[in-house]
Inverse folding.
């Protein structure tokens, strides 16, 4: 099923590397955006480390906090792509902060008590040259689902390099077939679910 052209996606790139430094996270997340584009989904990326996102659990933490602008783009998108590197077997501190800030959405409901995130899809992108992708995906999906996002079947793609080696995803000469096929499935299912939720929203409780 091809998604309507009006569907949009936003990547939260949670790399620890500021722009313009090359990022494996940015590379794989960009491949996900390209795959979504084949289903009529347009999108963009925010590299969170370039923004002054304050710690906290409110939608706006006051003077200088750039999360409100990020939040506005999240709420305007149909599909949220959370992309993170693996550090010490866990998601980056930037990704964790994004989840903490998204916690504020638990109080953002419509007149019928539904969270504003109920109509939105979330997928995960994880890269790293160490183990941890499955745990990170589980943690992301638990948090995002609690906040109200819907996760499609096969809603995550990851790449782990060989243990105890220093090769990064961006160093590969070509995309591994398993990653490419998983990315294609993720994009098709995310676009499909976003389209369904657009046409048939969740009922009020």
């Amino acid at each position: 099923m091809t998604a309507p052209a009006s569907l949009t996606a936003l990547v939260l790139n949670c790399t620890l590397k500021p722009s313009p430094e090359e990022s494996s996270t940015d590379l794989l997340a960009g491949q996900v955006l390209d795959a979504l584009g084949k289903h009529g989904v347009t999108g963009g990326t925010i590299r969170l480390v370039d923004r002054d996102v304050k710690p906290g659990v409110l939608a706006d933490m006051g003077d200088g906090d750039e999360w409100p602008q990020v939040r506005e783009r999240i709420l305007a998108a149909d599909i949220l792509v959370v992309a993170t590197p693996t550090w010490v077997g866990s998601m980056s501190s930037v990704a964790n902060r994004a989840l903490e800030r998204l916690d504020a959405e638990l109080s953002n409901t419509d007149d019928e008590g539904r969270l504003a995130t109920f109509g939105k899809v979330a997928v995960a992108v994880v890269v790293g040259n160490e183990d941890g992708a499955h745990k990170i995906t589980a943690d992301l999906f638990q948090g995002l689902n609690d906040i109200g996002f819907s996760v499609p079947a096969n809603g995550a793609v990851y790449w782990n390099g060989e243990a105890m080696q220093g090769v990064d995803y961006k160093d590969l000469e070509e995309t591994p077939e398993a990653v490419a096929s998983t990315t294609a499935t993720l994009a098709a299912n995310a676009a499909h679910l976003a389209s369904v939720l657009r046409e048939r929203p969740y009922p009020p409780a």
Remarks:
- Helices lie at 24-37, 67-76, 93-102, 133-147, 177-199.
- The chain has five helices and six strands.
- Strands lie at 8-13, 42-47, 79-87, 90-91, 121-128, 156-160.
